C-alpha cells in the first residue's frame, strides 16, 4: 500500500484549518447578530400575517436562551374583527443544528406553559376562516404542473419535522364554541421523552379524561399512538349535536411505520384500528351499530398525478378480511377506480362478522361452505358511457344449515303479512288460500302479469335478483346528469323489502335486502313463479288496498282474470305511487290525460316483445273506466292537488307514473334529498280528447292536437320519443324479451 506523501497531509491540514476558521468566524458573526436577526424576522412575520391574513400578532418578549433555543412570552393572535384565537404565556423552542445547516427546520425541544386556543363559529362567523384563504399566487399553470408525489413527500416531512423530539406541555386549553355546541379540552400534561408519548386531557370540566399515548419517533418516521379514556368510552357529543350521529369507541390506534420516496412515487405505510366502535345514525341504521374490532393495514401510494390505496392493503372486520384497491387519477382526465376482493372465506365467518345492530333478520343464521366477493368499478370521466361495473359473490358448497330470526323459506307456504304504514296501520292479512282475495298466479290475467313485469322488472324470469347492466348504465347516466336520475329495484328486491324487512330507508336495510335476495335467488329457496305470485298478492295498489284481488275488485269490480290490457297498464302505473290510485281518474271515470304517455310507453314495450298487439290508440287508455260507485268521491277534487299527488313517489327505486325515466334512487331517499329532476306538473285540467283531433305519428306516438300550437305539438312529440327511448333502454338493459 502506497503511503500518502507528507506534503499532501500538510496541505489537507491547512485546508481543514482554514475551513474551521471560516466556520468559526461566520458562527461568531451569526451568534453576535442573532438577536437582531430574530427581532427583524419577528417584525417581518407580524407584518406578513397582518397583510396576508388580517392577523394581529403580539409578542411580549422573544430572545435566545441558548445556542439554538428561543424563548417567547405573552403571545397573542387575534384575527381582525374576530374573537381572540390564541394566547400563550410561555413558549420555548429549540431547533436541531444539522437539519438547519441544510435548510430544514427540525424541532428539537418544545416547552409550553399556559396556552389557550379558542375556536369560534357563531352566526356563521369563524375566527379561524383565514386558514381557508387561498394564496393569491396560486394559478392554473402552477396547479397543472403540480407533482403530487413530491407534494406528499414534502408535506409528510414538514409535519414530522414539526413534532419535537422532546415535548413538555402544561395546561393547554382548547375550546370550540358554535351556535349549537361547546367543547372544552384541557391538556394538563403532555410529554415526549425518549420517544414515549404520554398525556392527560380533561374533557368538559371533568366529564371524561382522555389519554394520547404511544411511541413517537418522528425523525425515523415511526409513530404508534392510541387514544383512550379512563374507565369509559371516548365519546364525542359535539358530533352528535352537529351531525345527529352518536359516535363512541374504546380505543383508536394510528400507526405510521414507513415513508419512502423513489421512482416518482411516495409510499406511505400505516395502519388504523378501532375497538368497540358504536355509531347511531338514522341514515345508516335504526339501531346502534356496534363493531367490536376493525382495522386497516393501509398502503397509500402517491404518484405524480394520482393517489391510490394499494391492493396490498387489508381490511379486517372481526373474522372478515378483504383487499381493497382505490385509485383516483387527476390528470390528464379524472379517473376513478375501485376494486374489492375478499378471496375465499368461510361463509360462517362472513355472517358472524356483521356489525351488531345490522341485518336483524339474519342474526343467528348458520351456514356452511365458502364465499368470495368481488367488486370492480372503473370510470373514465371523459367517457362515462364506457364505465365498468361488476359485483358478484361466488359460492363453493354454500348451504344454509339453520335460519336466523327469519325463515327465508316462509314465502313457500301461507303466511301472515303485516303491511307497513306510517299512520293508520292496516290489519295484517293471510297470504294464502285462506284469504278470499288471494289469487293464484295462473288466475291473474296474462296482460296484467306482462304489464307489471314490463314496468317493474322485464327480465324477472332470467335475472338472479339483480340487473348489473342496468346499474352500470345508471352510473353513467347519473354521472353525465350530475344527479341521481335512475334507480333499479327488481321485483325480487321489492318482494323481499315488503315481506322480510321494515320500510326504514337506511343503508343497513338496503344491504340486508341485497343479501337476502342473493340467498333466495342463488340458492333457489323460492321459485320464480311463487315469488311473482306472492308479489302480486301483497303489493299495495291504493290506500289500504293490498293484493291484486282486492285491487281489481276495488277499481273495476272484476276478478284479476277479467282485467283488460288498459286496466292492467293502469294498475302497473300505481306500483310506484299506490296512494294516487283514485286521483288518476276524471269524475266521469275516465283516466286523466297525464297517463296517456305512460300507456304508450308500456304498451309499445309489450308489443315490441310480442306481449301485446300494436295499438295506435294508447293500448286501451280510453277504454279504462273506474267503477261507478267510486266516481262520486273524486268529483270535487282540486286539480292542482291531484296532479301533485300523482307525482309523489313513495317506493324505493320504482318507476314514477308520469315520467318513468325521472325516478329517484335509493340514495336520494336515504339522505332525504328532494327529487330535483321531476318535471313540473301541468296545472290545467285536461278534458277527455276528441278522437278526431288525435294524430298518429307512428311508433305508438299519438298526440291530441286540439288547442295546441305547432311548437307545443313538436315539444310533446320530442318528450314522448325521449320517454320511449329511455324506458326502452332500461328494458334492454334488464334483459326484457
Give the SSE map.
Elements: H1 6-53, E1 55-64, E2 69-79, E3 86-95, H2 97-101, E4 107-122, E5 125-126, H3 140-144, H4 148-161, E6 166-178, E7 182-193, E8 196-203, E9 208-217, E10 222-229, E11 234-235, H5 237-243, E12 246-249, E13 251-262, E14 265-280, E15 289-302, E16 306-309, E17 314-317, E18 320-329, E19 335-341, E20 345-346, H6 347-352, E21 366-380, E22 388-402, E23 415-417, E24 429-431, H7 446-456, H8 468-481, H9 491-499, H10 507-522, H11 528-538, E25 540-542, E26 545-546, H12 548-556, H13 565-574, H14 596-608, H15 628-631, H16 639-647, H17 666-670, E27 694-696, E28 702-704, H18 710-733
Parallel strand pairs: 4-6
Antiparallel strand pairs: 1-2, 2-3, 3-4, 4-5, 6-7, 7-8, 8-9, 9-10, 10-13, 11-12, 12-14, 13-14, 14-15, 15-16, 15-17, 16-18, 17-18, 18-19, 19-21, 20-21, 21-22, 23-24, 25-26, 27-28
Helix pairs in contact: 7-13, 7-14, 9-10, 9-11, 13-14, 14-18
Question: What do these coordinates show?
Answer:
The chain has 737 residues and is α+β, with helices and mostly antiparallel strands. It has a 22-stranded mixed beta sheet that branches. A hairpin with a 4-residue loop joins strand 9 (208-217) and strand 10 (222-229). The chain is elongated and about 115 Å long.
Terminal residue distance: 91 Å
Mean pLDDT: 82
Biggest beta sheet attributes: 22 strands, mixed
Report the principal-axis shape: elongated
Short synopsis of the structure:
By secondary structure, this protein is α+β, with helices and mostly antiparallel strands. The protein has a 22-stranded mixed β-sheet that branches. Helix 7 (446-456) packs across helix 14 (596-608), helix 13 (565-574) crosses helix 14 (596-608) and helix 14 packs across helix 18 (710-733).
Amino acid at each position: 500500500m502506497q503511503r500518502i506523501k507528507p506534503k499532501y497531509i500538510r496541505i489537507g491540514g491547512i485546508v481543514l484549518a482554514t475551513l474551521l476558521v471560516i466556520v468559526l468566524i461566520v458562527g461568531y458573526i451569526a451568534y453576535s447578530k442573532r438577536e437582531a436577526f430574530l427581532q427583524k424576522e419577528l417584525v417581518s412575520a407580524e407584518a406578513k400575517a397582518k397583510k396576508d391574513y388580517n392577523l394581529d400578532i403580539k409578542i411580549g418578549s422573544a430572545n435566545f436562551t441558548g445556542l439554538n433555543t428561543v424563548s417567547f412570552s405573552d403571545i397573542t393572535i387575534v384575527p381582525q374583527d374576530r374573537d381572540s384565537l390564541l394566547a400563550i404565556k410561555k413558549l420555548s423552542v429549540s431547533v436541531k443544528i444539522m437539519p438547519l445547516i441544510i435548510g430544514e427546520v427540525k424541532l428539537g425541544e418544545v416547552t409550553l406553559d399556559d396556552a389557550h386556543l379558542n375556536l369560534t363559529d357563531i352566526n356563521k362567523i369563524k375566527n379561524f376562516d383565514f386558514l381557508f384563504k387561498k394564496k393569491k399566487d396560486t394559478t392554473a399553470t402552477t396547479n397543472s404542473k403540480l407533482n403530487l408525489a413530491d407534494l406528499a413527500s414534502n408535506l409528510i416531512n414538514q409535519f414530522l419535522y414539526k413534532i419535537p423530539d422532546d415535548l413538555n406541555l402544561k395546561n393547554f386549553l382548547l375550546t370550540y364554541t358554535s351556535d349549537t355546541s361547546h367543547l372544552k379540552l384541557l391538556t394538563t400534561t403532555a410529554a415526549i421523552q425518549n420517544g414515549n408519548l404520554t398525556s392527560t386531557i380533561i374533557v368538559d370540566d371533568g366529564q371524561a379524561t382522555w389519554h394520547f399515548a404511544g411511541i413517537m419517533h418522528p425523525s425515523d418516521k415511526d409513530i404508534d399512538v392510541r387514544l383512550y379514556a379512563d374507565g369509559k368510552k371516548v365519546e364525542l357529543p359535539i358530533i352528535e349535536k352537529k351531525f345527529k350521529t352518536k359516535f363512541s369507541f374504546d380505543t383508536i390506534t394510528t400507526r405510521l411505520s414507513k415513508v419512502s420516496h423513489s421512482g416518482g412515487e411516495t409510499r406511505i405505510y400505516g395502519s388504523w384500528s378501532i375497538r368497540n366502535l358504536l355509531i347511531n345514525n338514522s341514515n345508516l341504521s335504526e339501531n346502534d351499530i356496534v363493531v367490536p374490532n376493525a382495522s386497516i393495514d393501509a398502503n397509500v401510494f402517491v404518484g405524480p398525478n394520482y393517489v391510490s390505496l394499494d391492493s396490498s392493503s387489508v381490511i379486517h372486520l372481526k373474522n372478515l378480511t378483504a383487499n381493497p384497491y382505490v385509485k383516483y387519477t387527476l390528470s390528464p382526465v379524472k379517473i376513478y377506480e375501485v376494486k374489492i376482493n375478499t378471496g375465499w372465506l368461510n361463509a360462517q365467518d362472513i355472517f358472524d362478522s356483521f356489525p351488531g345492530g345490522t341485518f336483524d333478520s339474519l342474526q343467528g343464521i348458520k351456514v356452511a361452505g365458502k364465499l368470495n366477493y368481488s367488486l370492480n368499478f372503473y370510470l373514465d370521466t371523459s367517457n362515462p358511457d364506457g364505465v365498468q361495473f361488476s359485483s358478484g359473490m361466488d359460492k363453493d358448497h354454500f348451504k344454509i344449515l339453520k335460519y336466523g330470526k327469519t325463515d327465508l323459506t316462509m314465502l313457500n307456504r301461507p303466511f301472515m303479512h303485516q303491511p307497513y304504514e306510517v299512520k293508520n296501520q292496516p290489519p295484517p292479512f293471510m297470504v294464502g288460500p285462506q284469504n278470499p282475495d288471494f289469487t293464484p298466479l295462473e288466475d291473474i290475467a296474462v296482460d296484467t302479469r306482462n304489464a307489471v313485469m314490463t314496468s317493474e322488472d322485464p327480465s324477472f324470469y332470467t335475472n338472479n335478483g339483480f340487473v348489473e347492466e342496468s346499474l352500470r348504465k345508471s352510473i353513467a347516466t347519473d354521472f353525465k346528469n350530475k344527479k341521481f336520475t335512475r334507480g333499479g329495484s327488481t321485483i325480487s328486491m321489492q318482494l323481499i323489502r315488503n315481506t322480510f324487512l321494515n320500510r326504514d330507508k337506511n343503508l343497513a336495510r338496503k344491504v340486508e335486502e341485497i343479501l337476502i335476495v342473493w340467498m333466495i335467488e342463488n340458492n333457489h329457496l323460492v321459485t320464480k313463479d311463487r315469488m311473482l305470485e306472492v308479489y302480486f298478492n301483497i303489493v299495495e295498489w291504493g290506500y289500504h288496498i293490498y293484493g291484486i284481488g282486492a285491487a281489481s275488485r276495488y277499481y273495476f269490480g272484476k276478478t284479476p282474470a277479467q282485467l283488460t290490457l288498459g286496466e292492467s297498464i293502469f294498475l302497473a302505473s300505481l306500483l310506484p305511487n299506490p296512494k294516487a290510485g283514485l286521483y288518476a281518474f276524471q269524475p266521469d271515470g275516465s283516466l286523466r290525460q297525464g297517463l296517456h304517455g305512460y300507456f304508450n310507453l308500456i304498451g309499445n314495450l309489450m308489443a315490441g316483445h310480442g306481449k301485446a298487439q300494436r295499438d295506435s290508440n294508447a293500448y286501451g287508455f280510453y277504454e279504462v273506466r273506474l267503477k261507478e260507485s267510486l266516481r262520486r268521491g273524486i268529483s270535487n277534487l282540486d286539480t292542482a292537488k291531484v296532479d301533485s299527488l300523482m307525482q309523489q313517489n313513495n317506493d324505493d327505486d320504482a318507476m314514477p307514473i308520469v315520467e318513468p325515466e325521472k325516478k329517484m334512487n335509493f340514495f336520494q331517499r336515504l339522505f332525504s334529498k328532494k327529487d330535483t329532476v321531476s318535471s313540473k306538473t301541468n296545472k290545467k285540467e285536461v278534458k277527455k280528447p276528441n278522437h278526431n283531433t288525435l294524430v298518429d305519428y307512428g311508433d305508438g306516438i299519438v298526440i291530441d292536437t286540439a288547442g295546441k300550437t305547432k311548437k307545443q305539438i313538436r315539444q310533446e312529440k320530442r318528450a314522448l320519443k325521449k320517454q320511449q327511448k329511455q324506458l326502452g333502454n332500461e328494458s334492454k338493459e334488464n334483459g326484457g324479451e
